[in-house]
Amino acid sequence: MVNWIQTYLLRHLQVFFYSLGQLTRSPLSLLMTSAVIGIALALPTGLHIVLKNIQSLSGDLDSAAQISLFLKKETSDFQAKQLSNQLRNMPQINSVHYISRQQALAEFKQLSGFGNALKALEKNPLPAVIVVRPSLSDSDALSNTRATQQLVEQLQSKPHVDIAQLDMQWIKRLYSIMDIIRRGVIILAGLLALAVLLVIGNTIRLAIQNRRDEIVIVKLIGGTDSFIRRPFLYTGFWYGLFGGLIALFLVISALLMLSGPIEALTQSYESQFSMQIIDFGSIFWLISASILLGLGGSWVAVERHLREIEPT
Amino acid sequence: MIQFSHASKRYPGGYDALLDINFQLSSGEMAFLTGHSGAGKSTLLKLIALIERASRGQVIVNGQNLAKVSRRKIPYHRRNVGMIFQDHQLLFDRTVFDNVALPLVISGLSHQEIGKKVRASLDKVGLLNKERAYPITLSGGEQQRVGIARAVVNKPPLLLADEPTGNLDPELSREIMSIFEQFSQVGVTVLIASHDIDLINNLPYRILTLKNARLSHDSAQTAAGN
User: Fold this and answer.
1) What single DSSP character describes residue B163?
2) What are the tens digits of pLDDT across the range B133-165?
3) Cβ of A220 and B75 within 8 Å?
4) Domain count of the fold of chain B
5) Do B72 and A225 touch (CB under 8 A)?
6) A102 vs A228: CA distance, rounded Å
7) Which of A221, A227, A228 to probe the B interface (max B CBs under 10 A)?
8) Which pLDDT belongs to residue A62?
9) Which domains does chain A have, with CATH numbers?
10) What's the half-sphere exposure (Cβ side, CA atoms, 13 Å) at A311?
11) Is the model's pLDDT at A115 over the cut of 90?
């Protein structure tokens, strides 16, 4: 029994390397077929990585969601500080930052460039603001959004608060846009996977036709279907593997090229975002999917064409 | 070893290649199958090797009714039937050794066993010194001997040869026939299709003659009748 398994594994190992040897005899056609597969797979993989990055970026933005409490004009500095302290003790609130009317004016002058125009005004037109950051316990973005919404309503009813403002609309929109893009990527990945399947299937079909005489001879001297099928399946495996590696190479180089400008952009938004090129999970899925497509494509071709070739 | 009873083969389109064939070949017997071209010699061999199936009647090989051999089991049946072809059917991108080794590779033998058996087989046909050569560099007679070595390498109990001397001169043909005789002497059943009447009439073996898809003459029955 052990012996039998040994011979079986040995035979597979032989065909495994034999098929690789056959492929490397014509490196150019191997490279071209693999490159077609690689490019087809690089597209959805790259988009997937970009989406993932946007997601982590928007996660950042979500946790950065702030509620601005504009206080009524007649509120005194003391009252405002009291309210700040009160807010600080609420469990839903992570941090509280009080900006007095004078600070607000100074900040506005500095940032807006309307400093001189403001000097013309008799009174400070700006209200005092308390900036509240909600504490987000939940990892789920949507329930966080809901909790934040509740907090806003609660804060609105506090004394001295004129307006409690939270602009979550754009985050919601971003989420739905990303949802659309994600589905688009899935559809694209499905179509391109089909294309890869067809490319490999066609390549294997040609390989089968090239070795028609050999297949006939092997059938004549008692070769089983699985014996004949094996080298073609392994050929598909190698195409898949090389295609996957090329896709990985393309994705990494494209993202590396993009990462510089993207980081410059995000830095201008004072975001701590650092771009993630590719994680091991994605590499694993890319390579396995590629190999499975290789095996699948060759399986389909072999099943379709091997039966047609019979000795006559 | 081989038994045909009322076996017929009709190809799609209504062409009858064989009609009501009856004969029996016992184990270790050597016989010739002859007849004009198109008489059905090749078809008869194809029925034995399960390249074709009989449309009617029965073909029994080695106690096995071939009608009952499923498509999946055909390879295992063919491993028991050594086949030799007029055009040799060798793989030209592989050495003589690899060509002869192919049936053993298919059966999944180990490296050492394959080496031993291939050399023993090449020795029998006198080509031991050519194991590293490519078939294209060999003469027609040598290529045919490689084909024979491949057919016998896994010691099948039955050998079929379809015009094995078709392209060879008389000298080489006799040489090839003497190789077949040697296998017959060690108990292998040998059936050779050939239209080389001069050659086979000079050999003391049974001759089955096909004419217009029917078995018109069987030298064994004539002998018994006399």
Assistant:
1) S
2) 999 999 988 999 999 999 999 999 999 999 998
3) no
4) 1
5) yes
6) 85
7) A221
8) 56
9) 2-60+172-306 (no CATH), 66-167 (3.30.70.3040)
10) 26
11) no
